[in-house]
Protein 1
Amino acid sequence: MTPEQFLYHEARLLDRQQYEQWLELFTEDATYWLPLEQGQKDPYETSSIIHDDRTLLELRVKQIRHPRAHARQPVARTVHQVGNVVQLAEANGELDIGSTLTVVEFRNEKQRVYGALVEHRLRPYSDPRAGSTFRIARKRIDLVNSEGELDGIAILL
Amino acid sequence: MAANEQLAMLVQPDRVHRALYTDAAIFELEMERIFARAWLVLGHESQVREPGDYFTTRMGREPVVVVKKDDGQIGVLVNRCAHRGAMVCAEGRGRVERFVCPYHGWSYDRAGELKAVPFSSGYAPGKLAELRLAKAPRVATYRGFIFASLAASGEPLEEFLGPATASFDDFVDRAPEGELEVAGGVFKHTYNGNWKLMLENHLDGAHPAWVHASSVAVARNAPDPGGERYSDIAVRQMRQNGAPDVVWEATGIWTTPRGHGYMGDYHDDDRLVAGLGNPVFDAYRAQLIERLGEQEADRILRVTLWNTIIYPNCSFMSQFRQLRIIHPLAVERSVVYTYSLRMPKAPPQMFRDTVAFANVVNGTGSWVLTDDLEVYERIQRGLTSNASEWVYIGRGYGRDVDDQGTQRGATGTSEVFIRGQMRAWLDYMTRDA
C-alpha cells in the first residue's frame, strides 16, 4: 500500500465510524497530537487541544461508544478530505508524510468545518491479510485556527 | 428599560425566571449594570512585565487593551479610536511604543493620551486636546491578578472580593517564592449558551456523575495509573470526577456577599493533591519549607480548595493553577479563555502536571469539557420552551448556614452558590449605581 492510499484508508475508517479499526492503525508507542499553538515544539510545557499517548487515544475511542457520552452521541457524521500528500523525510525505515486535511462534521443540526496541516510518521508493517502496509507512529494535526475561539472538539481528526 | 420591581420578580429565593438566560434585553442590561460596574478579572501581571507590554481582552463586550504604562502602572484602555472608532490595537499581545490607529494614523501613548494626528490643522485649536482613548477608571491588582472596573466609583477591590481573597492567597501561597506567571498557551472555547451557565456549573458537585459519566467510565476501565506514565494525570482526574455521592455531600461549599463562591476538595488521589504526602511532591514541599518553615508550608499544602468563582467573570483553581475568564458575547453565546499559571521556581514536573491537567479538563478537545459544553447548549435550547417559566435552584434551600461572612451549603451539593450568584445579580441589576 502506498502512503497516499494508506491515508485514504485511514480517513475512510473515520468517516465510516470504524473507530476501533482506526485505533488499530496506531503503534503501541504512538502519539496523536493537536497542538494548541502554531509551530508548537513541545507537548509537555505548552497545552494541546489534544495530546494522547496510545492509552489515552484508546479512552477517546471508547468514550464515543458510551451511551451517556453527551457530546459524542449520536455519533457525528464526518467527511475527512485528504490532499496534497507529500513525503517529507525517511529515516530508520519510517516515512514522514505531509498532507492537508479538510473535515466537515455534522451533528445535532450543526455543521462545522476544520482545516489542518497534518504530518504522519508511518512505520512499515506487514499485515497478515492486507500484506505490506503501515502503522502510524505519530500523527500531528495543526488546525489552521488552533489558536482561535473554537467550539468543543468531540470528533477524531 | 425594565423596572427594578420587574427584575426583582425574576429572582426568587429558590428559583429564577428563564428570561435571565434567554431575554436579549436583560442581557443588554447585564452588560450595563453588572459587567460595567463590577470588578472584572482581566489577567495576571506576568502578562505585562515591561513598559509597552500589552494584551487585548474584553470587559463584558468592551474591547480593551491591558498595558504596562511608562510609570510602571497597569492601564486598561478601551480599544477604540477617539476619531472614527476603529480598534487601534490588533487582537493579541505584544509590546508597543504607541498605539497607532490603522485608519488615519492617530497615535496614542501607552497611557492612551492622543499624541499625534495627521492633518491636525483641520481641527479648531484645542479641539483635539479633549480626545484620548477611553480607559477603565479603576484598575487594581490582588496578589498579582489584574482587575478593572468600568465604573468610576464603587467599593475597593478587597472589599469586593471579601472572603474570596483567601482563594487567591491559596493560589499564590503555594508557589515557592510566592510568584506565578501565565504560561503554556491559552484555550479559547465557545458555546451557544448564556454566560451564567458556566458559573453555575463549576461548583456543582451533583453534575459530574451525570455529565461526566462517560469519561469517568472509560477512565475506570483504563489500566491503573502508576510509574509516572504520561496518561496518568488524565486517568486519575477523570476517575476522581466519579467520586461517590457521600464525598460530594461532605465537600464544603461557600458563597460570599458579592456572589463569589468556592468549594472544598473532593480529591483523595495523592498524585493529584500535593498536600497528601506523595513523594513525587517532596522536592516541591522542600522548597516551601525552605522559605516558610515546615509548619507554614504544610498549612499551605493542606488547604483544601478546588474551584473558586469570582462573580461575574472568572473561575480558577489553585491545585493545578487554572484560570478561566468568561466573555459574554450575546444572550446565548459565550467564549471562555483558559490560562495556566506556572510557579517559576518550582520543580519542572509541577508545570508538566499543570499542562496535562489543562488538556484533560479544560482543553478544547477534552473528554470532560466537551460534555459540559454540550449540556450548556442543551440547557440553552431547553430554556426556549414556554412550558415552564422557572429554573429551580432550590437544592439545600432553607438549610444554608452563616459562616464567617459567607453562607455555607448544608451539604456539598447545595445550590447555595447559585442562590448567592442570583442575589448578587439582583443587587447589581437594581441598585442605583
Note: The radius of gyration of chain B is 23 Å.
Protein 2
Amino acid sequence: MFAYPAEIPYYFDMKQFQLNNLLDELSQPLFGFSYALCGDREEAQKLIVDAYTVYIVREKRFISGKELDSQNLKERRDFKKYLYKELLGEILELALKRLTGHRVDTEVEEHKCFFTMGIFSRAVFYLKEMKGFTIEDIQEVFGLERHRALEFYYNARQAMVGDIESLYRGGTHAN
Amino acid sequence: MQINLTDKTKRQMIASFVNGTLKSKDISIVEQIVGNDPVYQSFYQRKVQERDFILEMIPDAKLKLDEKANLLNDIAGVNSDLLVEDIIPWKVRIKEFLEKPVFTIKF
C-alpha cells in the first residue's frame, strides 16, 4: 500500500503537487517579467507571491476542481500557458497598484531608458520583444483592445529606438 | 526563381524574419531576397542590429538558486494554506446524502 513520506502533510494531494511543479517551471519567466516592472529583485519576488496568492484566493474553486492527467501532455501544456498568462495579468495589476509613480534607480546604464517608461509600456514592450508575444497574446493577457495594445507597444518602441531610426533616415543606410 | 514582390513587401518580410514572426514557408524567399541584393542585405543587417540593441536595453533578470528555492517555498506555502480541501467526516456525508430525497413528485 502507498504511504506518504513523513515530511509530506496528510492533506497533500495531487493538485498541489502538480501546481508546485508548474510554478517551478514558470518561476523564471514570471520573475523576469516582475523584475521588468519593478526593477528590484526582492520586490519582484514579493510581487509574484502576492499575485499568486490573490489569484488562488479568487480562483480557489476552479483550481481545486482541476486535476491534470499526467499522461495528457497537451492538457498540461495548455493549462501551464493559461496559468502563465493569468499570473502575468495579476502581477501587472498588482504592480500598477503598488508601483505607480515609483521611480526605478538601476545601476545598469543600458536599462535606464527602459525603466523611464511607464509600467504598462514596460510590460507590453518586455513581453513583445523579449518573450515574443504577439499583439493578440498581449490583448488577451492585459485585457486591452487591439489599438490600445499597439499604441503602448509603438510608443514604447519609439521611446527606445526612435533615435536610432532618425539616425538611419539621415544617414546613408537603406531605408 | 524570380521573386515578384514590391519593395515594401520585401522589407516587411525581412522585418518579420528578424522578429521571428515570418511563416516557415516564406523563409527561403527572404533568404533569396537578402542573398541576392546588397540593398536588402544592408536592410537585414540594420534590422538585426536594431533587434540586438533593443534586447540589450531590456533587463532579463534570472532567479538565483537560493532565490528560486525561497520563492517556490513561499508558493508551496500558499498552496498548502489555501488549497486544503474541506475534510467532511463520513458520517456527515452519509447523513447529508440520506436527507436528500431520491426523487420528488410535483403536483
Note: Chain B touches chain A through 35 residues (CB under 8 Å).
